[in-house]
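#onboarding

Welcome to the new folks! Below is a worked example of what a typical request in this channel looks like: someone posts a single protein sequence, and someone else replies with the predicted structure as tokens. Don't worry about understanding the tokens yet, we'll cover that in week two.

Example request:
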Amino acid sequence: MSLTIATWNINSVRLRIANVERYLKMRKPDVLCLQETKCPDEFFPHAAFEKLGYVHRFVQGMKSYNGVAIVSKVPFSGTNIHHRCGKEDCRHIEVALDIGDDPILLDNLYIPAGGDIPDPALNVKFAHKLDFYREMAGWYADRKPKPRARKGLRRIAVGDLNVAPLEHDVWSHKQLLKIVSHTPVEVELFGRLEASLDWIDVPRQFVPADKKLYSWWSYRNNDWRASNRGRRLDHILASPALRSAILSHHIDVNLRDWELTSDHVPVSATFEV
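Example response:
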């Protein structure tokens, strides 16, 4: 079967629910992972997703900040909420998609943005971000399947990881080296995370590393399309067992023009599972 998973930092699911509905009707992904929902669980707009056939939902939210959600047409089980760095701030949930004898483990992540000052000694938000990356790398390394394992090999991690790791994941590598999201320490920790489970960077399987690729454009740019000062902050990573299953990816750049838009656009990937 074909499985399409999309990820989108929606920047308030209730505020932008009309855009979410429009996107789901247009693209019809099997699974949508949302970040920065900014919505306590009791106020999550379940009815809108139910109406569109996303009858399986797992949410973890809080008032005004953060929040993650997985809405799916595919049944899932084994739901988990993971608290990171000693905080309960709604940044990582996990489900097991019930596909075949070996479920696909799916992580939805919203890694801290890190504030504006790229110095952990001066900026606790940046220190939190670095600690989060270190903790995630260790956590995935502990879950690396044994060589002869028959199950637990299929895993996908998506979300707003808030790092643009490659030179052409930002509009100007030179100018952003000292800007949070593209500093050398963040790029190094992103690499450590990738290595922890031998992750495959799905979009970069289709777009060479020397080509520009973005998923975020600042609200501060009056004409974001003309300036095109973007960054690739939203990612889809797949475990090696899924390499041959990767069919395609898509970044919905044009959604950045929608009314009441998020500063992020959806990123999706399709697998033959």
